[in-house]
Amino acid sequence: MHTNRQQQVRLTRWRGGQHPTLELMKRQLLDEGMRPFRWHQHANYRFGVRSHGFDKTLYCLEGSIEVVFPDLRQRHKLKSGDRIDIPKGTRHSITVGRYGATCLEGTPAPATTGV
Fold it and tell me: How far is residue 108's CA from residue 30's CA, in Å, rounded to a whole number?
């Protein structure tokens, strides 16, 4: 059965007394079948508008980022512990906050085939 339901951007704010650890976030992505990798950018760095042919999940580990979705007229600021899920094909740009940012990004892990 084919459905035309379009996936939406999903923002999850961290709620808790202590921010989740890198290991906890990494484990979450692995459990969801994603390949995690960490990146860091200096203050005010801007990733231009882009889209991907795959779903992408992004956790903010340190600092802050702002993710802008021009076609959806949405913008979301992420701080330490926050997560955003970006469906494939969704145009977005990212601007790093004034103190820089370290993020953990998850992309689909390559499919394995049994022989």
Answer: 9
Tokens for 49? Answer: 């508008």
Strand segments (E) across the chain: 10-12, 34-41, 46-50, 56-69, 74-79, 83-86, 92-108
Q: What distance in Å separates the CA atoms of residue 12 and residue 81, rounded to the nearest whole number?
A: 9
Answer yes or no: pTM beyond 0.85.
yes
- Digit-by-digit pLDDT tens for the chain (115 residues) are 333 345 799 999 998 777 778 999 999 999 999 999 999 999 999 999 999 999 999 999 999 999 999 999 999 999 999 999 999 999 999 999 999 999 999 999 887 655 5
Report the C-alpha gap between 59 and 82 in whole angstroms: 6
Q: Which residue has the tokens 């960490």?
A: 38
Q: Are 86 and 9 in contact (CB under 8 A)?
A: yes
Residue carrying the six token digits 């459905």: 3
Query: Check: CATH 2.30.30.60 for 10-108?
Result: no
